[in-house]
What does this fold into?
Amino acid sequence: MAKNRIKELRESSNPKITLKELSEKLKEKGLSFSDSQLYYYEQGKRSPRSKVADDFWQALSEIFDVSLAYVTGYDIDSQKLTKNLDSLNSQTKILSDEFKKDTGKAQNPTIKELKQYVNGDQERKINEDIKQLNNISYNLNEINRKKLIEYAKDLSKLQNFEKEKEKAEDKK
It folds into this structure.
């Protein structure tokens, strides 16, 4: 289970929100949780009962104005993702350079050419990943499927952000 961000969000609010104040804000949304229950939730020692969990996490995401994935701890670590994307870009450049050297082509290879250059394992691995994601999704309960979808949406948004960032840097 991912570590939720209740405490982080409470303490980073301006002004900071106490557990008692958070309990009151939840009451305004029709949810009754004591400050001691909230303490156990933010420490990860307990979780809300399944029949109210969706409403609880949704209310927190609205109170703190963050995504459901973020408040539950299932979001993307953007610094780690940026590092991974940089690594992927470096590897792609190396592969592209190797392709040019091996084939004698002066221009950058197309994606199709790179796919053909890299052994056929890559496409097989992607298909296996897709099958694995389908199996994982199928075995999740509704709450966790929603979290998986939120995470995927966040990844997609971050990828689009990175593309826009690259375009802006290329224009400079």
User: Anything to note?
Assistant: The chain has two domains: 6-72, 78-171. Residues 6-72 form one domain. The radius of gyration is 22 Å.
